[in-house]
Specification:
The structure is a homodimer of 346-residue chains.
Chain A lengths: L7 H8 L3 H9 L6 H14 L5 H8 L4 E6 L5 H16 L3 E6 L4 H13 L4 E4 L16 E4 L11 E4 L1 H14 L6 E4 L5 H16 L9 E3 L4 H14 L6 E4 L2 H13 L9 E6 L12 E4 L2 H18 L9 E4 L2 E3 L7 H8 L1
Parallel strand pairs in A: 1-2, 1-3, 3-4, 4-5, 5-11, 6-7, 6-8, 8-9, 9-10
Antiparallel strand pairs in A: 10-12
Helix pairs in contact in A: 1-2, 1-3, 2-3, 5-11, 7-8, 9-10
Chain A binds a DNA duplex (30 and 30 nucleotides) through helix 2 and helix 4.
Chain lengths: 346, 346
DNA sequence: TTCGGTGGTGGCAACGTTCCCATACAAGGG
DNA sequence: CCCTTGTATGGGAACGTTGCCACCACCGAA
């Protein structure tokens, strides 16, 4: 039978002091004689005392727990996010509970409730439901991540700068001699889709193209979905020697698969540009050229911000409510350089 | 300012009963009049009562928290494991804390300590350090997963049946007309490596081949490592029209990359067989043929077992201390069918 | 000498829950 | 009518920690 875990009272007894003194030593508070400090420390080590965070949390109102709700932990991009958050939380001696909402608002709501019940000190959430207003448990600090974050007024958020990132992609395609790309976007209901699309549209307009001519297919952010979307694009025959810009890397990988299946050579016949920067994109053939979002950094910043809000209480002026981190072009092999081809021919 | 979360006392007050009665209703205990039950339920909903699991945990000794320690959350295989564990835990109304040890025993130890401090009711651990004996916090139920699990006497474990899975792979290669594969294995110190290798050796012996002739390279289970290992294999020039069996999918994908870089066609010139069944293997070109381990199921079973042990206390005869789940061949496109080629030539 | 300040310490209440025990009342058997 | 049995409820302790308050001794200043 496992002996009950030693408590601070056991430590105090072993050190021959009161539990208040022991508590003060263990909490690192001042006004303690060196002898007492030493003896308590020794006693704690000797009997293998381990602070009961549950009890401490109950008294202090802090659980030492943080929550992270993301759409899909099995997507490498989100796995990176989880990693970043995990590391940052551990650095602050906080534990992180990660939950996958599976792009399902109901699941998301359940997870958030579970977090609330666990009395997390705060949560980083990537909202799946664009319209949910009562995300945070009353009074629980929340920091949002992801592109839908900005739809929530008053809740701070960290995300990639979508405008910048999409523009990066469009400019890159142009620099390689491509015209308007066909698009594989996320589900119609999501805000992220609209924002992505609008940047592309603006880009089209700036280059005197009709945004209405854009070939657009929707998918659900999965490889399977991206593959089906690419097949639909191919069936439309609007993709000539063109290129495809997918709204995430999983769908871009799916597009690569579809092209391969259809016997269309990428990048020679069709170029594919991804959007995420999943490390896994380096494994495809051809290796996926993509706009990398700083996943770990986004998560780390979000957790930092969250900790900040927890420590400073809810009542504080939040100047930098929105943090935008720039994306980065990762040029690999899935986008052909038509300008070079043209030059070579000349 | 957020109003303090309502307690069970608030509920009792609102319902006009004592907190004992309210507690009994909320806990679903018998011996409660219908009127009292109804009023308490209504009051709880009305004031938005949410049980404080911290306080409950302190009193009952159950935190409602489970831990999961895996080597690398950004590896899709482990992400699947996390998903399976997460889902199973949620089904039991338990929360899961996932931690990545990064293949580092020190990090692993830190995570385990963090779990112990959080007073998790139990933990599922994939031990990175083969020799660590004091994994579990004194008396905390633990279930091990992964191939090193069996090194720990007395601790139950769930894992894939390595012997079966590797044999599956070897038999498949033989059936496709391949001879002994070159191997890309994990780091030399790991038990998993030895076990994998020994099955291959046995297979060689059974087919009158000298296991000493096996070309073996080691890597660290990453794509990058697998790629470097494949380059080393190519440099050795021992890989003719042969095949490579990698000990996980990430390294297999790395091998695919290396082959592509070296201008070696897979599967025509060299076949590659993976080992994991990461969904991401479907995205490579050629798509990775692999031995799939039932990641989600392993995790789910491990969590089930853990819950079982928690509920029944530590004092119980554990008949099925070791659970082995069979692997499954996922045939895609990275292994050439030489027998067919031979047949065609004839 | 007395008084206020201060460093070191112990006592005690509180956090929100669960669980055990005590109480109250009704029904039923002797 | 009393005593037992059972059901419905209330009271209060306990879980392990934190944080406030009080206490004691000591020191320097008035």
């Amino acid at each position: 039978m496992a002996a009950k875990a030693p408590t601070i009272i056991d430590v105090a007894k072993a050190a021959g002091v009161s539990k208040s003194t022991a508590a003060r030593v263990l909490a690192g508070l001042p006004n303690i004689s060196d002898t007492a400090r030493e003896r308590v420390r020794a006693a704690a080590v000797a009997i293998g005392y381990e602070r009961n965070t549950l009890a401490a949390g109950m008294r202090s109102g802090r659980s030492g727990l943080l929550g992270l709700v993301i759409p899909d932990i099995s997507n490498p991009f989100w796995a990176e996010v989880a990693r970043g958050a995990q590391d940052r939380a551990a650095a602050a001696d906080l534990s992180l509970m990660v939950m996958s909402s599976d792009w399902d608002p109901a699941t998301e709501a359940r997870h958030i409730q579970a977090l609330r019940r666990a009395r997390v000190d705060g949560a980083v959430i990537n909202p799946v439901s664009d319209q949910v207003g009562d995300l945070p448990g009353a009074g629980t600090p929340v920091v949002l991540i992801g592109s839908a974050a900005e739809a929530f007024a008053g809740i701070p958020s960290v995300g990639s700068d979508i405008h910048h990132a999409v523009t990066l992609g469009m400019d890159f395609l142009v620099s390689k001699g491509h015209d308007m790309p066909s698009l594989i976007l996320g589900p119609p209901s999501r805000l992220a889709r609209t924002r992505f699309l609008n940047v592309v549209r603006r880009h089209c307009i700036a280059r005197d193209r009709d945004p209405g001519d854009l070939a657009i297919e929707s998918a659900d952010y999965t490889v399977r979905g991206g593959r089906a979307a690419m097949h639909r694009l191919l069936a439309r025959r609007t993709v000539g020697h063109g290129c495809v810009f997918a709204a995430n890397d999983m769908m871009a990988l799916g597009a690569l698969m579809a092209l391969h299946e259809a016997g269309v050579n990428c990048p020679r016949d069709v170029s594919v540009l991804g959007f995420d920067g999943s490390p896994i994109g380096a494994c495809s053939a051809p290796q996926l050229t993509t706009i990398a979002k700083p996943a770990r950094e986004i998560a780390a910043r979000a957790v930092s911000m969250l900790i900040d809000r927890i420590d400073r209480g809810t009542a504080c002026a939040i100047e930098e409510l929105r943090v935008h981190l720039p994306g980065r072009l990762v040029e690999r092999a899935s986008v052909a350089d038509l300008s070079a081809a043209v030059r070579r021919r000349a």
